[in-house]
Design goal:
Structural class: mainly beta
Order of helices and strands: HEEEEEEEEEEEEEEEEEEEEEEEEEEEEE
Number of helices: 1
Shape: rod-shaped
Largest sheet: 9 strands, antiparallel
Radius of gyration: 46 Å
Helix content: under 10%
CATH topology of the largest domain: Immunoglobulin-like
Number of domains: 3
């Protein structure tokens, strides 16, 4: 019996020892669960701006994390102002563009104290400030977008617009028409930009596209399709450059003999672009030298009023031709008169033996 009690005593001591060790283990586990996730993953880290009315909370960063088959979750990192009272308050509700959700720490929001790394895509963004990272769920990103943060204590609720501080490249038709949008919606400073092709997205009646320029008048930096440049610290506008697409209609030189009426005018067309075919059905050709009684000399042949299909894609240029009126050839033969000596001279006569007079 004594041995039994002794064993029991030993067992009791062991149990007590075991119980003494449990609290630190349990406390350690709870502490680990309260640590925020410090390495987020997602797409490009976006610079954003916006702050609460009292200036205690500012939006600094945002990123999108794709959820296959659903869309993109929108994460925003909010920075607390030093000693901001809101840091110690519990977040109850979060809202995105008017849609509100329950806030769950470790589920859709995380807090980072000073000394803790705020890390996204293995990049440490900060560890010197207090941060609140909120996952607003799968949403359609707008710029700006409205956010709301509701705390468990009155007077600390936050609601403001967040703007995406991104650099953009805009393509301007520069008096042309059409739409050309860069599929890369935004760029970071220093990011490589590849200049887009026009591919007839922009058109201008009567003009051909010749490239891009940073100034509308072409006095800036010129770029062609496929050229690259590093994004500066400001938005860039690339203006389409245009050159007249000229279609030249030239009246052909002609000649006629004085006394004839002339109607056999002709013209030549130069400058047709294979990408912009033209079918001309008529051109007005006029000359003062075409009349029957127009005197010998040179007269301009003036082309105008071209009619046909596809002409709206060109600037029309008309070039005069020349109608030359040449002398009319005739042969005049004098008649052979006779008289008797002493008589008065007979009248002298003639006849046209080749050609004819007109007018």
């Amino acid at each position: 019996m004594g041995k039994t009690r002794k064993v029991g005593t030993i067992l009791t001591i062991l149990l007590v020892a075991t119980l003494v060790l449990l609290p630190p283990i349990t406390a350690f586990a709870v502490e680990a669960q309260s640590q925020p996730e410090s390495d987020f993953t997602g797409g490009e880290i976006l610079d954003v701006s916006g702050q609460s009315t009292n200036g205690h909370v500012t939006a600094e960063y945002a990123w999108l994390t794709n959820i296959p088959g659903e869309g993109n979750e929108i994460f925003v990192a909010f920075k607390y102002k030093d000693t901001a009272a809101a840091w110690g308050k519990t977040l109850n509700r979060i809202g995105y563009n008017g849609l509100e959700f329950d806030a769950v720490e470790g589920g859709n929001y995380w807090k980072f104290d000073k000394g803790e790394n705020l890390t996204v895509n293995d990049q440490i963004l900060d560890n010197d400030s207090q941060w609140l990272v909120v996952n607003f769920g799968v949403q359609t990103l707008s710029d700006p977008f409205g956010i709301s943060l509701t705390f468990d204590a009155g007077g600390f609720d936050i609601s403001f617009d967040v703007s995406i501080d991104l650099l953009t490249v805009t393509y301007d038709p520069n008096s042309g028409v059409g739409v050309l949008t860069d599929p890369n919606a935004a760029y970071d400073e220093g990011q490589v930009v590849t200049v887009l092709a026009n591919d007839n997205a922009f058109t201008k009646a009567g003009y051909s596209f010749t490239g891009w320029n940073t100034e509308p008048d072409g006095r800036g930096t010129a770029y062609a399709e496929g050229d690259t440049f590093n994004m500066p610290n400001h938005d860039v506008v690339l203006y389409a450059q245009w050159a007249p697409r000229t279609l030249t209609i030239t009246a052909l030189d002609k000649s006629k003999v004085y006394g004839e009426e002339f109607t056999d005018f002709e013209y030549r067309v130069d400058g047709v672009d294979d990408d912009y075919p033209v079918t001309i059905t008529s051109v007005t050709l006029a000359s003062n030298g075409s009349a029957q009684n127009a005197g010998v000399g040179s007269y301009p042949i003036v082309p105008s009023n071209a009619i046909g299909a596809g002409l709206e894609n060109y600037q029309l240029e008309y070039v005069n031709g020349t109608l030359t009126v040449t002398p009319r050839a005739i042969q005049v033969t004098a008649d052979d008169p006779s008289k008797v000596y002493g008589d008065s001279d007979p009248a002298l006569t003639y006849r046209i033996t080749q050609g004819n007079l007109v007018g």
